[in-house]
Amino acid sequence: MAEPIIDMRNIEKHFGSVIALAGVSVDVIPGECHCLLGDNGAGKSTFIKTMSGVHKPSAGEIFFEGKPMNFDSPRDSIDAGIATVYQDLAMIPLMSVARNFFMGNEPTRKIAGISFFDHQKANDVTMAEMKKMGINLRSPDQAVGTLSGGERQTVAIARAVHFGAKVLILDEPTSALGVRQTANVLATVDKVRSQGIGVVLITHNVRHAMAVGDRFTVLDRGKTLGTANRGEITPEELQDLMAGGQKLATLEGSLGGTV
Amino acid sequence: MTQTAEAAEAEAAEPEQPPVDERVKERSKFHQALIRPELGGIAGTILVFFFFFLTARDSGMFSPSGVLNWSIVSAQFIIIAVGACLLMIAGEFDLSVGSMIGFAGMSIALLSVSLGWPVWLAIIVTFILCMGVGALNGWLVIKTGLPSFIVTLAFLFILRGLTIFAAITTTNKTIVGGIRDVAEGDWLAPIFGGKIFTGFFQWMGDAGWIETFERGTRKGQPVVEGIPMLIVWALVLVIFGHWLLTKTKFGNWIFASGGDARSADYVGVPVNRVKILMFMFTAFCACVFATAQVMEFGSAGADRGLLKEFEAIISVVIGGALLTGGYGSVIGAALGAIIFGVVQQGLFFAGVESSLFRVFLGVILLLAVILNTYIRRMITGEK
Amino acid sequence: MKKIKLLAAAALSVAIAVPLAMMSTSAVAAGERYILVSHAPDSDSWWNTIKNGITLAGKQMGVKVEYRNPPTGDLADMARIIEQATASRPNGIITTLADFDVLSGPIRNAVDQGINVIIMNSGTPEQTRKVGALMFVGQPEYDAGYAAGLRAKGDGIKSFVCVNHVISNAVVAERCRGFADGLGIKLGNSMLDSGQDPSEIKNRVLAYLSANPKTDAILTLGPTSADPTLLALKENGLAGDIYFGTFDLGDNIVKGIKSGIIQWGIDQQPFLQAYLPVVVLTNYDRYGVLPGNNINSGPGFVTKDGLTLVEKYAGEYR
Fold first, then answer.
1. Which domains does chain A have, with CATH numbers?
2. CB distance B255–A93 less than 8 Å?
3. Taking Cα atoms as reference points, which of B291, B292, B285 lies closest to residue B311?
């Protein structure tokens, strides 16, 4: 097994008297898709915010590429190569795809000593990167607002990959999407993984997780219920774990196995 | 070359061509070129000129002095509209522009006439003061997290009050004159109040192509002596604003700061710096307006610039910018200012009862905003 | 869909533009054309008498008259209106000279282009000469204030407050200065910047009078400040008790004079300031005749005696 690119050990996070994380350990290997599952309130969001530098852990250690690491701000983790794609905070709908793609990392070109935004380069790179991800843009000037939810997620992912992310955290990328868009996003995840990037996929949909996941970690009430490799666990077992044990089995029976 | 190579590479890695979404209608190149933020402004400008050409053709509106008249008024609107436009795109408002104009004018007058400073020093100190107030506006908005609407509204009153107070306590008057005399021979004053191409206009006047004075001390001189620096400033500011917004990295930050400050901040755009700089730029524009006015008329009044903040915002909105930020165009704002200026002066030329000016303005504002909203929805896919 | 909306917008604008255009074409009639430019904002009702005055003169003389003013009262905007009036090549311009620095340039330009100019209302005979205008029709403000001050001194007044609603107009402030000199006291802090809003004016007057209870007299500078001051005096019970004089007339001022709350009103007779220049300009253009001097339209003191005509036409021609 390859060295993990990021290794989070026994992470605890307390908000006042509330213990949001009570010792969670997760590691991500380059080129794998590690799915983080759990019901609402399980601590998924707190955990990834710790990973992306928004929160500082109360206890526990983070190793990035084998070295201990302390993130003081989101900027630190971005610089280290951890990119997070939030569901609604990814893109500015009024701006063009190319302007969004290079927001904060604008390419420049000097003419007579004056720095110009290199639109040509921005447009070309955006078109090429989007094509790699399987999206045919009408033009790079197209506003992000005209794209579908899935396409917006894909632009954000492509942006993170282009700017050298080693770990890509996706926060519920599929929760607001239709069936076809979900399939597109999951296909994008597969492409990213094949480039050797470690993907952390947060979801509470077992079928989406099973579609792309290499490993599955289930969180419940701030604790890890265990990590399983692909093929070692069935969707039903995952579902039960997420619901916190065997409780769902009876419920599932009464609903005719449709949950 | 690299572009095609890259594209080929992409295709090699991805043999199946991504499907074209059949629900997105293909648009022609012409159609695409047409649908831009300035479209409303362009259409409005054409309509307004067409209208006045029909109704006021023989009234002197299109004689050299008539053209100069509405050009100056439009240029004044342009100067403050450029600042307001960039600030609005960055997601903020400045309601203190009008008071800033009064404040800056009075500052120049008091420093140069009452305190006897050289005019160039008075102008430079005033610019520093104004941009300082702009920076303070921006800093307060960012530190307190209050809407800029409220913070700058406070400065609308503070600056106006200070202007009247300073004028009354130092000179016992609310209008301070005599600046033209002290500005005589100053090196900086002509950059705001001077005229260019005067030789060319004199030559045209001598040749009988443009009107000349019929009597008085200036008999034989052309009525239009040259292009006032006010118009030059307006052009320079429009070009600078347009370049900054569309052709630089900083322009992308302006759009991003106004579009969604949190998203922008998250990807490393220095949102606070962008906003404070835009507040300072707006103050700079107001100060240019004030200085040019003071140098032209030779006096500063405590009530100068009343309601100019709204005229600036109206111009920007006619020009297609979004009140909530993140979208707009400097060219559009300039066209909005031209529409505003031409309508305001043109109605007089057309002999329309002056009390109807506001009715006309309201109608144009409404039409422009409706048209702009449709254009914007077409571009950005907003619902 | 979009085309329909664009068409609708265009149709709407044409629907609005056409009647306005028709109005404007009917406005460009044959005969002499005169433009009156004032410094008053739209909100100043006193200028209605001026509008009626030029309209009547226009009708009687058979000439076309126009009234122009800066909507917010900004004098820099007024300078543009004069330039613009000049560019439209009228036979004559009648304008106020509210600020010599700002307005002298544009007025001089009009004169030098062969347009006859008469200064009305604000300005001095000396400034009128300087800009090359034909004559000044108005009330010398300082002299009017001085005369009023002498009158008040005779009535035993020792202190006063001047309610100034146009603090930016230097000429109007001369009225207060003249009044103080007539009384033989210093102006000092007696000038109250009241603003233009009626309820603000009322409350500032109330505040001033309660802070300075020894004030003998109130001087208001026009209906804009007089009307709210009347209300203020009724509210604090000083109506009829405090000495109250005002410049200019209006409906409420006339009622106040009648009921004894206001001792006198100084009528600068704005009707004449509008009516006479049109008549003078027309006769000058037609027959080359011109009166040899400036015309003083005021001051005329209006008291309780002989109010009948004033009452009938207050706000219209008086």
1. 6-89+166-254 (3.40.50.300)
2. no
3. B285
